[in-house]
Amino acid sequence: MNIVEVRAVEIDLYPKPTTKPRPVQPRYSGMNQPLDRYDPERRLKQPPWHRAACLITAADGSFGFGLTPFSGPLLSLINDQFGPALIGQNCMATEKLYDMMLRMTAGYGGAGLASYALSAIDTALWDLKGKVLQRPVYELLGGPQKEKIFCYATGHDTEWYMELGFKATKVFTQGGADAGLDGLKINEDLVAHTRELVGPDVELMLDCWLSMDVEHTVRLAEKVRPYKLKWIEDYLRFDDIEGYAEVRKRLPWQTLASGEHWYGPATFANVMKRDLVDILQPDVLWAGGITPCVKICHMAEAMGKSVITHGGMNYPYAQHLAFAMPAIVWGERSQEVSPPGVPLQEMVEIPGTAVIENGYLVPSDAPGFGMEITKEWVEGVMV
Q: What phi and psi, each to the nearest 5 degrees, are found at residue 198?
């Protein structure tokens, strides 16, 4: 089945809950960010871009819907370079098409924004492939490997997450390396407070969001060791590979995780070869799509590593990947999980997205990724 159209458009997705949130103010909120080093008032702001959606249509009229952030620079990449090269190609040839597109990035590199563009196209291709074959994507990836996906919630509405039935949660640090002793103190208090809220039988994790250095990461890990964190993640800049090696050497007892800002299988292969982290966290909508993330999962399985995709339970794409891959052990629900009092069902952005129930999720078994959308629906959310 050949591809007849590839089109990228800017869309604005946001949940529209009808339940009024409870007036609850958590003790902590937000997170420290890398730019805090220079001016905490100039927090790292995302540019005024919405999401980029990619629609790929086959000769029989079937279409696949892919997604990624940063519509601004990506629309031209998809519409002017990648899209025209895919016209006339077999929509089932996902391995070939991914390899083609990766080779097309030779002039500017396949990481960063290029990887986001690949993600939108590759996820659209897998959605189309499932629709043409009338099978859910997880079956095309090998079939269900687990009965349901264990999920955790990321954010600071901890008590609400426990009420929703989650048995694991992750919080963001409140001060980075430049906050010095004050940062260590507030982060220790954050972890201690959260542990008190969830008790000893709930897993607790800590996200540092690229704002530490080697020394501060080690000191922080030692400070919070009594609270039995499941893992610490994203403590260094994405490109500080030598720093990751040093942290690994100095914290042999601490489970370490990272990867949402790493792109493509080659980067993850290097990380695994050097044994830098225990848990790999690619984002399906950032790292290049389903095709490269399958490769990452297979390498991780062979190397004895775990994979937990970044924000994987937010959208159907990584839900299907997690359901099929043995290396993926948990799923993350992030991106404003749900305001206190608002059911998770009301936070769905794409109709047909499966919802976590009592801390577990089972993906839709409808064709493709199971999204209940039409091209008219896409037109309705376009910016």
A: -95, -20
123-150 b/e with 16+ CB inside 10 Å = b?
bbbbbbbbbbbebbbbbbbeebeeebbb
| SS3 track for 144-211 | CCCCCEEEEEECCCHHHHHHHCCCEEEEECCCCHHHHHHHHHHHHHHHHHHHHHHCCCCEEEEECCCC
Domain contains 366: no
Residues 285, 345 within the same domain: yes
- Clarify whether residues 20 and 126 are in a common domain: yes
Question: At residue 77, what is the residue type?
Answer: L
CA distances to 56, 88, 122, 126, 373 from 92, in Å:
12, 12, 11, 8, 21
CA-closest candidate to residue 281, choices 255, 262, 295: 262
User: pLDDT of 210-252, one tens digit each?
Assistant: 999 999 999 999 999 999 999 999 999 999 999 999 999 999 9
Q: DSSP label at 46?
A: P
- Regarding whether 301 and 226 lie in a shared domain, the answer is yes
- In this predicted model, what pLDDT tens digit does every residue of 327-378 receive, in sequence order? 999 999 998 899 999 999 999 999 999 999 999 999 999 999 999 999 999 9
Please give the DSSP secondary-structure letter assigned to residue 368. B
Please give the positions annotated as active site: 310
Domain that holds residue 97: 3-134+375-381
Question: Helix, strand, coil % (nearest 5) of the chain?
Answer: 40, 15, 45
CATH of the domain at 168: 3.20.20.120
Judgement on whether residues 113 and 253 belong to the same structural domain of the protein: no
Q: Domain for residue 370, yes or no?
A: no
The verdict on 157 and 74 lying in the same domain is no
Global pTM exceeds 0.85? yes
Are residues 198 and 298 both part of a single domain?
yes
